[in-house]
Specification:
By secondary structure, the protein is α/β, with parallel strands linked by helices. The chain contains seven helices and seven strands. Helix 2 links the parallel strand 3 and strand 4 (77-80).
């Protein structure tokens, strides 16, 4: 029997160097017949007067497009970074000030589709050990702030099917760890 991912939205968000891309690769390898579409969110253009409004409108449109893809093509969509990252990084690096009501409003349309949220985090020391020179920051106090903000926005998220992964709590980047995350949260069917 072959397991397939049902049409759904899978959001992979979190800190740099915490396994998001590794988990996405694992998903694609485990479910090759499901043909999940992987989309990656990026930061807004740097020359905007109001990056917060731009980003909120961007994510509203993107959520609508994702819902149409899932509905019309009946495939899973995996978001590599998404709205929670904006609430963290937009606040820290683009002087945005986000509020829980804005998160609730942004996530409201997701209630009509199967949505799973994974937030990957780790201790600052572990992240510094894995740094490859491409991280947003290597300042420990800023990295601690990123961690605390992801924790806060995860708690504010209205997505009910969600998991907060903190690798410093003893889990490792192994296939068995990823498998347990999948078994608990993703919708699959068997052919």
């Amino acid at each position: 029997t072959m397991k397939h991912l049902e049409p759904q939205l899978i959001i992979i968000d979190g800190l740099d160097r915490c396994g998001k891309s590794t988990f996405i690769e694992y998903l694609r390898d485990k479910y090759p017949d499901s043909c999940p579409m992987v989309l990656h969110s990026t930061k807004p253009p740097s020359d905007l007067e109001d990056p917060k409004s731009y980003q909120l409108n961007h994510y509203k449109k993107q959520i609508q497009q994702i819902k149409e893809i899932i509905t019309n093509f009946e495939i899973p969509v995996i978001m590599d970074r998404f709205h929670l990252g904006e609430f963290v990084y937009g606040t820290l690096y683009r002087n945005g000030q986000y509020y829980p009501e804005e998160l609730k409003e942004l996530e409201q349309p997701l209630k009509s589709i199967k949505t799973t949220l994974y937030v990957f985090t780790d201790s600052t020391d572990n992240r510094l050990d894995r740094d490859d020179g491409n991280s947003l920051t290597i300042d420990p106090s800023t990295m601690d702030a990123e961690y605390n903000m992801f924790t806060e926005w995860y708690d504010h998220s209205t997505i009910t099917n969600k998991t907060f992964i903190d690798w410093s709590q003893g889990q490792d980047f192994s296939a068995s760890t990823f498998e347990s995350l999948l078994d608990r949260h993703l919708s699959t069917d068997t052919e």
